[in-house]
Amino acid sequence: MGRLAVFTALLVCFFAGRCSANGVFWHVTDFHYDFTYLHGAESGKICDSQTAGQPTPGNPGDWGDYLCDAPWRLIDSSVHAMKVIEPDPDFIIWTGDDTPHIYNDKMNTDVVLTIIGNLTDLIRSVFPNTQVYPVLGNHDYHPKHQMPPAPNTVYNTTWSMWNVPSWLTADVMDTFINGAYYTMVISPGLRLVGLNTVYYYTNDRVTAPTDNSTDPAGQFAWLEGVLQQAQTDNEKVFLIGHVPPGVFERAASKSWFYPEYNRRYLQVVTKYADVIKGQFFAHQHCDSFRIFYDDKGKAVSSMLLAPAVTPWMTTLAGVGANNPGIRLVRYDKNTGDLTDVSQYYSNLALANQEGSPLWGQEYSLRETFNLPDASTASLQDLLDSFSDESSDNFQKYYRYNSVGYDLSACDGSCKVAQLCAIKEVDYEKYGECINAVGSGANNAWVTALISIEVVVPLAVAVFSLVA
Q1: pLDDT digits (tens, 9 = 90+) for 352-379
Q2: Residue 20: pLDDT band by 50, 70, 90 thresholds?
Q3: Residue 338 belongs to what H/E stretch?
Q4: How high is the pLDDT of residue 437?
Q5: Which residues 6+ apart lie within 8 Å of 63 measured at CB?
Q6: pLDDT tens digit string along 179-214?
Q7: Reduced to 3 states, what is the DSSP secondary structure of residue 291?
Q8: Which percentage of the chain shows pLDDT scores above 70?
Q9: Residue 456 pLDDT > 50
């Protein structure tokens, strides 16, 4: 490049701000739109997603209720709040679960696709020129969770919705149509991989493993190939997906992946930890993180779990509800390093009281926890501080875990479950962690987790307890 060209490029960089390494993107997830809220629900209910076993509220709010999935006006408010807070993100990741927690007999494929289409139109209308990277969740299929590793109406139709400018490009059509996963370049040197981890979910009977080599839609083999090529090309990678590996920190007996898939995911992540700069997942409706270790016990990768927009109270005992949340992630465009996470939320009870949601910052990972960045090393330091009795970091984290809904203290077995879930994504090590600290956990479920044959009750597969 000649001197004049270099000088011109520098001028453009200076005046247009194009040399800035400071990047930012939105992560939004788990809308779970309930079209029956206050209109058309079963007799005696305020919504068809109303949490089972809970009394019907006498005075439900206009903006939603903690016993129900999100009404449209709450969802609309959340996306418009994103536009107000950060109107020009580099991109948006949208990690699925769009339909309500309603029994299969009241849903069908057309309803699922209509909801996905409505949400797609909403995001596109509010952010018309922003790159969007979407993936499907376990509620984005009918019957829910039973996502097949082959072409189908949902994959084909969502492809036609998302194969548009600033969304998915034509070159990812083959993997998306056949398995609803894909990879795209975010910018030179930085790649995104959108995974379909519904295949690994214990509620998906269609993809239950028959042995350790089972690979639904060939996604694991494909993923390793993408990461190997990224390593060769000196690219860094962001992984996104809906269902995460590991165990739910608020429900000590609830794992997400089949054991075989959990082990394989861990193997892939630790093998290519030098390439993977971030993992962004959801599904739990709660705000947490996970740390991945190599065989020497060194923290080599981490996963950020984003909370939901829906406030719905799960039927899992002791878990509770959450306030609606949206997440802004800051990163270095040149290296892919994560520099901060800013969590925004609206207090649903206050929104109903005041007549409108007030979206504000709940915390900044760097400022609230006094961390230098959002790297794996910083998250390990944060985890270490949770065991320091002189630090209030754990209680702050626990409050944010439910997006400010659960303000109770978390100690004893509650704290043990949280810490072990964050640290030990491997099921066997998680079981050892739970028992090592004298929690009195029952070993029966640990044995089930690490066995080859896992029996998944049909009732759970019909109606998901979580997300």
Answers
A1: 999 999 999 999 999 999 999 999 999 9
A2: low
A3: strand 338-345
A4: 52
A5: 71, 73, 74, 77, 348, 351, 352, 356, 357
A6: 999 999 999 999 999 999 999 999 999 999 999 999
A7: strand
A8: 89
A9: no
Question: Any idea how long the chain is?
Answer: 467
Residues 6+ apart with CB under 8 A from 112: 98, 99, 140, 141, 142, 154
Give yes or no for a contact between 137 and 242, defined as CB atoms under 8 angstroms apart: yes
Residue of 184, 175, 174, 114 lying closest to 142 (CA atoms):
114
User: CB neighbours (10 Å) of residue 353?
Assistant: 11
pLDDT tens, position by position, 37-55: 999 899 999 999 999 999 9
Alpha carbon separation from 310 to 286, 323, 336, 342, 454 (Å, rounded): 11, 8, 30, 19, 30
Q: Provide mean pLDDT across the span 285-309.
A: 98
Residue type, 298: K
Strand order in the sheet with 182-187: 182-187, 190-194, 236-240, 276-281, 299-305, 288-293
- Name the strand (E) or helix (H) holding 289: strand 288-293
Which 8-state DSSP code applies to residue 56? P
CA distances from 352 to 38, 61, 73, 342 (A): 14, 5, 12, 24
Burial class of residue 392 (count of CB atoms within 10 Å of its CB; 0-12, 13-18, 19+): exposed
CA-to-CA distance for 68 and 48, rounded, in angstroms? Answer: 8
Cβ density class 196-233: b for 16+ within 10 Å, e for less: bbbbbbbbbebbbbeeeebbbbebbebbeebbeebeee
The answer to which of 397-401, 456-460, 463-467 has the lowest mean pLDDT is 456-460
pLDDT of res. 253: 78
Over range 331-347, report the average pLDDT. Answer: 98
Q: Could you identify the residue written with the tokens 């999935």?
A: 69
The secondary structure element, H or E, covering residue 416 is: helix 413-423
What single letter denotes the amino acid at residue 355?
G
Q: Residue 436's pLDDT is what?
A: 85
User: In whole angstroms, what separates CA 132 from the centre of its chain?
Assistant: 15
Q: How many CA atoms lie within 13 A of 74 on its CB side?
A: 34
